[in-house]
Structures are given as structure tokens and as C-alpha cells.
Design goal:
The chain is an all-alpha fold and 278 residues long. It contains 15 helices and no strands.
């Protein structure tokens, strides 16, 4: 989850101003957290709440879904104007919200806490589906969340790059390297879908040598930079861990008095997590 937040913050200034290189300041004074961070924290807060209310029980799907809905709407209203998509903003404003059949990459950007919370890969896929279908009940909305969460789960539990690539290939097929797509990949409608984001984020991780290198890979190909780097960062954190100095720099951009970073730290301290923060 920290990796997703870092990727979001680093990528925030490149979403509409893509760059095609890896040599750039990791953090700029103009960086900020976007809806990717807000909704990732909201999913974590929902899982934390469910766990604390029933610490020794399997929490029913309906309860988890209800808390996810409440937290997403609550955090979304607490942090307005963070780049929410038109459909999601309408969902936030609606007195009686319903899923709106989105295939957008919003379901993948926010899903990483499900992988940390899950007790098995099957459980991970279940939680990812729950987190997606509140809004993104299109098949690709659900696939994007499950593919991303599953990749993070495998990275947390000793999976190799090939394991992760083979797993995500169950959802999406791709055959490219970053150098091949870098000249033409751009932020358009395709790059805002899960199909146009998740495989590219996974490839950025596959070609990386470290957590920071994974983030740089993701930014360097363009596209929906903050979301792309958030997904890549989530997988890279699970595989490499997050250097503390990078996390401390990211927290500076979250210090708005709203307690986002505190919620993140509380989530990692949950005793029922199957893996701990590295």
C-alpha cells in the first residue's frame, strides 16, 4: 500500500505531462497525492474497521462491502478535488449510489490493501472483487482489481517475476517490453482502462531492479502516470520492500492534518495481516 501511495505522489505531476525518460527527481515540490492515494487509504480503513469489529471471525462479504462503500464515500468527501473521474464523482455525490459499470483503472489503483489483508490467493481475489464492484462492476473493472491484487499477493509470498507475469496473463495477454511501447504509449481513453494500464504496470515491475527503479520505469513510459506508478509501486513494495527514506519523503506530501499516513500505519499494524510491512 505504501508503494501505491508513493507511485501516485511521484506520478502526480506527469499524468498530463508525460515524460519518456527515467532520469527525473523522484519527488518535486509540486507533487501531491491524488484520488489514487485517497481511495487506497479508504479501502485499507474499511478492512481495518471490519477486522477490529470481528477480530476472531471471518467477516461476511456484505459487511466488508458496506464498510468499503462508507469509507470510499467518507474519504472522497473529506478529500474533494483530487482528480476523481466523472463517474466516480457522480457516485460520491449521489444520495443513493449504485455501481456504474466502469472498466476504468480506478478499481486497480486502490486494491493493494486487499492483498496484504488476504489469507490466501483465493481470499485476495474475493476481496479485490468486493472492492471493485462497489463502483466498477464491469468485467474489466473486476479483472483489473483481481489481477493487481493477485500480483501483489504473490510478490508478498515469495512469487517470482515469472510467477507474477504468468498469473496476470490469466487476465490479460501482452507481449512487449518497455522500450517498444515508450515512444507511443500515451494518456488516452485506453490508458485509463484496466486493460490499458495493468499489463503495462506489471511490465514496469518485471523490468525493474529495485523499488525505485520500478517507479521510474512506470513514469518513463507515459500514460496515466500516477495510476500506472501506483499499481507498479504496489507490486514493487511487496517484492522489494519500500526504503524508509522514500516513505518518509512521501509522508511529507500527506501531512495535511487528515490522518492519511496514520491510517496507513495502523493498517500495517493489524495483527491478522498475513504479511507485515518490510
Amino acid at each position: 500500500m505504501k508503494g501505491a501511495i508513493i507511485g501516485d505522489i511521484v506520478g502526480s505531476i506527469y499524468e498530463f505531462h508525460n515524460i519518456k525518460e527515467k532520469d527525473f527527481p523522484l519527488f518535486s515540490r509540486n507533487c501531491f497525492f491524488t484520488d489514487d492515494t485517497v481511495m487506497t487509504v479508504a479501502v485499507a480503513a474499511a478492512l481495518e474497521t471490519a477486522a477490529r469489529k470481528a477480530p476472531d471471525e471471518d467477516v461476511p462479504d456484505a459487511v466488508i462491502s458496506n464498510w468499503m462503500l462508507k469509507m470510499m464515500r467518507g474519504y472522497g468527501r473529506t478529500y474533494p478535488d483530487r482528480g476523481y473521474g466523472r463517474g466516480f464523482q457522480k457516485w460520491l455525490d449521489d444520495r443513493h449510489p449504485h455501481p456504474y459499470y466502469s472498466s476504468g483503472n480506478g478499481s486497480a489503483m486502490r486494491v493493494s490493501p486487499c492483498a496484504w489483508f488476504a489469507r490466501s490467493l483465493e481470499d485476495c481475489e474475493r476481496l479485490a472483487k468486493l472492492s471493485a464492484e462497489i463502483t466498477h462492476n464491469h468485467p474489466d473493472g473486476i479483472c483489473g482489481a483481481q489481477a493487481t491484487a493477485g500480483a501483489v499477493y504473490l510478490a508478498l509470498h515469495g512469487g517470482t517475476g515469472n510467477d507474477i507475469m504468468n498469473y496476470v496473463s490469466r487476465y490479460y495477454g501482452w507481449d512487449f517490453c518497455l522500450d517498444e511501447i515508450r515512444p507511443t504509449y500515451k494518456f488516452d481513453h485506453f490508458a485509463s482502462t484496466n486493460e490499458g494500464t495493468v499489463p503495462y504496470a506489471v511490465q514496469a515491475f518485471i523490468e525493474s531492479e529495485s523499488f525505485e527503479d520500478a517507479i521510474r520505469n512506470a513514469i518513463s513510459i507515459g500514460g496515466d502516470s500516477d495510476t500506472l506508478a501506483a499499481i507498479t509501486g504496489a507490486i514493487a513494495e511487496a517484492y522489494y520492500g519500500v526504503p524508509d527514506d522514500i516513505w518518509q519523503q512521501a509522508k511529507v506530501f500527506m501531512d495535511d492534518g487528515g490522518g492519511l499516513a496514520d491510517t496507513v500505519e495502523r493498517f500495517y499494524d493489524l495483527p491478522m495481516l498475513t504479511a507485515k510491512s518490510k
